[in-house]
Amino acid sequence: MKIKIKDRYQTILLIIILTYSLFVGLVNPAFFSVETLFDLIRTSSTSLIVVIGLLLVMISGGIDVSFMAVALFGSYTTIKIMFALGINSLIFAFGVSILIAGLLGLINALLVNWLKLPPFIITLGTQSLFHGIMTTFIGDKSFGAGVLPSCLNSFGQATIFSFQTKDGKFGLTVSIIPILLVGLITWFILYRTMLGRGIIALGNSEEAARRIGFNPFLIRLFVYTYSGMLSGLMGIIYVTQVNALYPNKLVGEELMIVAAAVIGGTKITGGQGKIFGAILGVLIIYLLNSTLILIGLSSSWNDLFVGAILVISIAVSSYQERIKNRKNMIFTE
Amino acid sequence: MDRMKKFILDDINFSILIGLTICAIVLSGIFIGDKMFSIANIQAMAYQIPEFGFLCLAMMLSNLIGGIDLSIISGANAISIFTAYVLNGQWSFGTTGIVRIILAIVVAILAGICFGLFNGFLISRTSAPSLIATLGTMTLYRGIGMALTGGRSIGNIIPEFSYIGKARLLGIPIIFWIFIIVALLLGFVLSKTTYGRKLYLYGGNPVASRFSAIHNERMCRSVFLLTGVFAAIAGIIVLSRVNSAKVGYGESYLLQTMIVCVIGGIHPNGGRGTVKGVLMAIILMQIMSSAFTIMSLSPYTKKLIWGAMLILVLGMNYFINKMYAKYRNKGRY
Lengths: 333, 333
Description:
The complex is a heterodimer.
Chain A: H1 2-27, H2 34-59, H3 67-85, H4 90-115, H5 119-138, H6 150-157, E1 159-165, E2 168-173, H7 176-192, H8 194-204, H9 206-211, H10 216-242, H11 254-263, H12 275-291, H13 302-327
Antiparallel strand pairs in A: 1-2
Helix pairs in contact in A: 1-12, 2-7, 2-8, 2-10, 2-11, 2-12, 3-4, 3-5, 3-10, 4-5, 4-10, 6-10, 7-8, 8-10, 11-12, 11-13
Chain B: H1 2-10, H2 12-36, H3 39-64, H4 72-87, H5 97-126, H6 130-149, H7 163-166, E1 168-169, E2 172-173, H8 174-192, H9 194-204, H10 206-210, H11 216-242, H12 253-263, H13 275-294, H14 299-330
Antiparallel strand pairs in B: 1-2
C-alpha cells in the first residue's frame, strides 16, 4: 500500500509534465520536435547528474549544498593541472576531477559526522570555504574557448544519433551516456546492495539503523563522497558543454537542484526518494525555464512558477505525512 | 579568582565572544588603526549595522525554535520592491509627500506580516520542515519580485524617504537607535516574559511543549510573523539607504546571518541562545567586514574567510561544549 502511494506521486508528476507539454505544444506547435527534446536533455544533463548524488545524501537524512562549489573546484583544478602538464586526455580529466571532488566530499562527510550539527549549515560553510580556497589559492582567471585542451571540446560537441534538419545537423548529446551510467549504478547501489538498504535505514532512523548493525559513519562517508564524485564528473561535463572555464559559474545554483529533488518527492528528513522522481523534478524546472518564452511570458516569471510548484508540492506531501503521523499518535512536529 | 572563573565559565560562549571582539578591535587597531577608528568609519558602521542586524534577529528567532528561515533576504527584497513602487508613484493611490511615506511603510509592514504568516501557516499547518518550506517561499518571494520588475532596478523614489536612512539623533543614526530599541525589547520579551519561556521550551523540545499545553502552531506562526516583520524593516532600511530596489540585493547576507547566529551562541537545533550574544556577534562581524573593506580584500577572499569562520566556530563550539560538560559534571560526581 505504501509503495503504491509513492508511485502515485511520481505518476501525478509525469501527468503534470505531459499536460504542460501538451499545452505549450498547442500554443506553439514549434515545441513538438525532436530538437526540443534533445536540447532539454543537453541543458539539463549537468543537473541530472548532481541531483542523483544529492538524492542519495537526502535519502540518508542529510543535505548537501556544497556540491556546485565542489564541482567547480574539481574541474577548475583539473584543467589547471592539464595546462601545467600539457596533458590532453579525457580520461585524465574525468579521473582527476572525480578524485579531487571525492576528497572534498569526504571532508564534508567527516565534518557532518564529527560536529553533529545540521548538515545544511556545515555544507553552507564548506561551500564558501571550497570556493574561497579555489579562487584564492588556485586561480580566479577565466579561460575562454580555444584555450582549453581540445579533447574537452570534442567531447562536448560529440553526438549520438545525429540527423540532418533544415536548420543544420542535430543530435543527442553524448553526455547522456554518463547520466545513464550514473543512474544505473545508483539504482543498483540503492536497491540491490546492503549499502543501499543502509542508506534508507539511516534516513528513517539513525538509532534503528545502528541497532540492526549498520555503521552510520561509514554510510555517511559513502553518500557524501559519492555526491562529491558525481559533482566532479558533472564539473568536467559542464566545462565541455560551455567550452570555457569560469571561476564564478555554477556556485549559487545549489538550491535550485535541492528544489528539484524536493519537487521529485524526496523527503528532506530522509528515508524516502526515487531516482526517477528526482529526474522528473529537474526536468520540470528546465521545461519551465525553456518554455515560458514559447507561451508568451518572459523568463523572469520562472522563479514564480518554480516557487509555486515547490510550495504546493511541499505542502501536499508534508500534510499527508502529518495526517498519517497523527493517526498513529506520532507528534514529530 | 574563583568568582572570576565562575563568571567566565558560567556563560562560556559569551565570554569567548567578548574575547574575540576585543581581539578583533585590538588587531584592527594595530594594523589599520587610523582608518579603522576614525569618526567617519565608526559612523559608517552605525549606518551599516541595522539592515544586517534586523536580518540577523530574524534568523536568530527562526533558529531559536529549531528551524531556519531562508526566505528573509528574498522577502526583504520583495518588500523593498513593493515599497519602491509605492514611493515612486506607481502604487501611491494619489498620495503625496509625507502621507505617501507613511503609506509605503504601512504597505511594507503589511507585506512583511503576510510573508511571515504565509511561512508560519505553511510550516505549522503541514508540519513541513522549515528548511524546505522556506526554500520554497524564498523562491516564491524572489519570483514575485522578479515577475514585478523583470530584473530591473526600481528607482526614482521621492527624495524625502532617504532621510529615514540619513537622519541622526545625538550624532547616532536614527535607524541604529531603532535597531537597538527593537533588539532590547526582543531581549526583554525572550528572557523575562511567559512568551519567551514558552518559545525556548518549544524550540528545545516541541513534543514536550505540546504536552505542556503550549499551542505549538500558534508559537510557530508568531515566530515567523516576527521574522517577516523584521525582514520588512530590513527592506525599508535597505531602500532608504540605497534609494533603489532590485532582486538579488545582499544575497551573501544569508551566510553572514548564519555565522552571526552560530557565533552568537544560538544553537541551530533550537532552544538555546540569547539576544546579547547575537548583538555582540553582529558587532564583531561588522568590525571584521569594515576591516576587510579597508584592507580592500577581494570578494573571493572574503568568501574564504567567512566559510572558514563558520566551520571553525562550529568546531570550536563542539570542543568547548564537550569541555564545558566535563566542568559542569565535576560538581555532580
